[in-house]
Recover the amino acids of this structure.
């Protein structure tokens, strides 16, 4: 029997209240959500992959599989990197489930390999020349006004038709 | 693609592939290419089929037979006062490091 999805907002609110922080986070909420129907098929589209994973940062300690939470590995500006390479990207800077996930396989949180396969099978038209990194900033104003603006410019520069954001 | 259903739907996104997995596996199970390809296939399908914003597809994949991970994640149920105080101190330190990194960023 499957159970209901974990209520993260409630769980995190209770956790931080129990720790003594009396300023519960207000998650983003939008009454209106944009939607653009596709103008061409997926198999004719240029796909861009957006990730919250972080590039390796020298002198920032353990950032790989099994690393404890590592605030030094955080990044605060959008980045873009060559999608034909297999760079290290880590999630040590986010609160993933460290008891049940080891982050040992980058493909579980960054599906570039699966996208390449999809492209070779003709399921997508093409892959953008870069993949894109989006900071996980508690400030929603910074996220919208700075990060999303910069990310959009990169996606447009690379003529991305369809963007997939993989959150972790 | 994500695994925190309530957070993503509270925000509202155009299209959402929800995988009911422990956080950190939004693209599929580790070391399981079929799971990863199937998860991506749902995203590609959703691009083609969604008709309106806030459309969610839930992946049919199950993480395991045991949903214990759902009870445990950030649960305070078994934490003593001492443990809570310890975690408070750790988080204060984490915040300080994060703010320092942010402040040093261009």
């Amino acid at each position: 029997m499957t159970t209901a999805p974990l209520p993260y907002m409630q769980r995190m609110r209770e956790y931080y209240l129990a720790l003594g922080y009396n300023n519960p986070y207000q998650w983003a909420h939008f009454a209106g959500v944009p939607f653009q129907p596709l103008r061409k098929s997926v198999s004719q589209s240029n796909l861009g992959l957006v990730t919250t994973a972080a590039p390796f940062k020298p002198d920032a300690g353990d950032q790989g599989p099994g690393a404890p939470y590592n605030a030094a590995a955080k990044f605060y500006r959008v980045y873009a990197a060559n999608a034909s390479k297999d760079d290290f990207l880590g999630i040590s800077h986010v609160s993933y489930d460290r008891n049940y996930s080891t982050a040992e396989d980058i493909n579980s949180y960054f599906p570039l390999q699966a996208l390449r396969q999809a492209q070779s099978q003709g399921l997508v038209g093409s892959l953008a020349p870069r993949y894109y990194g989006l900071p996980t900033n508690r400030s929603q104003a910074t996220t919208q006004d700075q990060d999303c603006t910069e990310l959009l410019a990169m996606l447009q520069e690379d003529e991305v038709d369809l963007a997939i954001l993989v959150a972790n | 693609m994500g695994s925190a259903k309530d957070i993503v739907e509270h925000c509202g996104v155009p299209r959402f592939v929800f995988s009911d997995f422990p956080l950190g596996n939004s693209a599929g199970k580790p070391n399981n290419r079929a799971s990863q390809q199937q998860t991506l296939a749902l995203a590609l399908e959703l691009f083609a089929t969604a008709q309106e914003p806030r459309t969610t597809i839930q992946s049919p994949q199950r993480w395991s037979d045991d949903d214990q991970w759902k009870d445990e994640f950030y649960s305070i149920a078994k934490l003593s006062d001492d443990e809570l105080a310890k975690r408070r101190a750790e988080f204060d330190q984490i915040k300080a490091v994060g703010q320092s990194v942010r402040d040093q960023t261009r």
